[in-house]
Fold this sequence. Notes:
single chain; Ribosomal Protein S8, Chain: A, domain 1; about 15% strand
Amino acid sequence: MTTQRYTVESLEKLAESLFVAAGMDADKARVVAEALVGGDMVGQRTHGMALCPQYLGEIEKGSMAKRGEPAVARDSGAVFVWDGNYLPGPWLVSRAFDQAAGRIAQHGVVTAVIRRSHHIACLTALLRQATERDLAIILASSDPAFGYVAPYGGKEPVFTPNPIAIGYPGTEAPVWIDVSTSITTVGMSRQKIADGASFAHPWMMDAQGVPTGDPRVIDAGGTLLPIGGRDYGHKGFGLSLMIEMLTHGLGGFGRLDTETRWGANVFMQLIDPDAFAGRDAFLRQMDFLTERCHANAPIDPASPVRMPGEMAQRRIREAERSGLDVAPKVWEALAAAAAKYGVALPVQKTEP
């Protein structure tokens, strides 16, 4: 089966229609669909439309809520905590962003923590809504139900990859940073397993604590190595603890509660540069830093320094212009879901 290419709009419509057919509220389905296609647009294919069939499976099992609202656990204006009741993660984050953005003029910094969210998909795709409004954002996530990363010096899984994303505006383009506190991710490991491939470097650790590039160890008691690997993994371990503190500690729900379903605890902080030294001062400083990085002598002249997010923004423009490829295995799963729910598949994009 060959790779298919479709317009961004047609893929969003497909995902939205599938979620609505599965019983999800229309407003939630639209936001989740945009987030998944957004993941593909920035190049994070494991967190794009490949998640759509998995999310549908979660809905069918009753593990992802289709309707309803988050419960407010605490709200002091500049800080609020929600119980997400396992509603769709991208929708919860978007809803929390809207509430925080509505308060930012008053408080300057607004912080939200969401416990018991479902999976929030691609963090980079969620940064855009903040930087488009000239706001800075810190977004972090951890799943208290699973463990794939051992603490430094140990060999038993405790943490998830615990991603953290940061976005801030610039005069020419925003900066988007999205990293995990483990060297690689569960999604990438699964993709390698499906392709029958190994990692080029020892980014995993088997059940005996031996570093390896074999992703299959994840299903045999092995773990993902933290940033820094066996030599400097205390750095990734420390960052992972920070994410657990922000998401589980501040949310009051975590690994102590022995949750078993796929989900996430989320930390989101929205920052208005105007509340500090001012927007102009912020842009002067950060634009200067970007210029210094761009002007830095490259190791390889063919690969000059680029700021985090530049490649993602280039891919977004390309996707908007030329559409998106869908891998054969992903398309097979989407086609099966469409047949099951009676949803029409989009027509392939033709060349302009």
